[in-house]
Amino acid sequence: MAYRNFIDLWQLEAAELRAIMDSAHAMKRARQGWPKGKIDADAPLAGHTLAMIFEKSSTRTRFSFDMAMTQLGGSSIIATAADMQLGRGETVEDTARVLSRYVDAVMIRANNHSDVETFAAAASVPVINGLTDRSHPCQIMADLMTLEEHGLDLKGARLAWVGDGNNVCSSLIHAAPKFGYSMAIGTPERYAPDEDDVEIAREMQGRIDLYDTAEEAVAGADVVIADTFVSMGDADADERLAELDPYAVTEDLMGIANGGAKFLHCLPAHRGEEVDAEIIDGPQSLVWDEAENRLHAQKAVLRWCLGK
Ligand code: CP
Ligand code: NVA
After folding, report:
1. How many angstroms separate the Cα of 85 from the Cα of each of 6, 17, 82, 89, 307?
2. Per-residue pLDDT tens for 277-302?
3. Which CATH code of 3.40.50.720, 3.10.450.50, 3.40.50.1370, 3.40.50.12160 fits the domain covering 9-136+292-305?
4. What letters, b where the CB count within 10 A reaches 16 and e where it falls short, cover 193-219?
5. Backbone dihedral angles phi then psi of residue 117, each to the nearest 5 degrees
6. What pLDDT is stored for residue 1 in this prediction?
7. What is the CB-side half-sphere exposure of residue 136 using CA atoms within 13 A?
8. Pocket residues: Cβ below 6 A from ligand 2
9. Domain with CATH 3.40.50.1370 in the chain
10. In terms of pTM, does the model score above 0.90?
């Protein structure tokens, strides 16, 4: 069976990403006002099951993928790695071979990005990256969908990322040349985004500007994006909180961005750390639509992976 993995956004063609995004918008529109558990009229994944493996905590990814499969007419099975033999030393490859005999697709949230790649290489069904230490592609599909929904033309838009140049930032970098937005990233040097990711985007003619301060990054931005200063798996929490404090999104910082600039945050948020309550709970914030759009964007990703 022909299938496609969804591991990193730079690996997809711009036209494929555009088609996934258009499908997400269309599916969301088509079920406005419906009960959330009602199956889409065409039930495109009827008879299909998604397995989800979590090595780290999750609220949005877990519930949105589960509901995505329900709305597509399929089903899902969820386990933490600790519940599985994976947690007691069964290899990633053997787990992939076995699950491929039971289910039609697998979503993995893994500590190490290389485990998702190893799993995908051994599996014979599509594998979706549900966040790793390196990237979070599903999140960025939802983020970009949200911006479009709120009227932003991504082509030529300026997106500012401030704080830690982490996994979510990397996926936003990967998508920049695909959708035609430029990025302004403000971080301390120590928490700058991965150099390889920046190079990948620049090689594809993406414009990625790196700055030492949040103020420089936000100047002229249409969107300001923040994430936690301490990601899952980060050991140096105290140092991070101290060093990243000047990169918090405050009213003063938002005031430097373009008038009417939007605010995004993948959640979970820490009010008073990376963002002030006035911003995340204020009129510029799109975070609840952003969280909802995880569901719609992932439905489109699932259909693309399975060729449905
Ligand atoms: N944004 C996001 O991936 O949230 P969860 O960690 O709750 O899945
Ligand atoms: N950067 C965060 C995102 C959580 C959704 C983390 O990896 O913990």
Report:
1. 24, 35, 8, 6, 30
2. 999 999 999 999 999 999 999 999 99
3. 3.40.50.1370
4. bbeebbebbeeeebebebbeebebbbb
5. -65, -40
6. 52
7. 24
8. 131, 166-168, 227-228, 231-232, 266
9. 9-136+292-305, 151-285
10. yes
Determine contact, residues 142/28, Cβ cutoff 8 Å.
no
Assess whether the C-beta atom of 58 lies below 6 angstroms from ligand 1: yes
Superfamily in which the 151-285 domain is placed by CATH: Aspartate/ornithine carbamoyltransferase (3.40.50.1370)
Evaluate: CB of 129 within 6 angstroms of ligand 1: no
Across 244-257, average pLDDT: 98
* Mean pLDDT taken over the chain: 98
Please name which ligand lies nearest the alpha carbon of 61.
1
First to last CA, the chain: 12
- Tokens standing for 215? 């103020």
pLDDT tens column, 13-39? 999 999 999 999 999 999 999 999 999
Residue nearest to atom 1 of ligand 2 (CA): 231
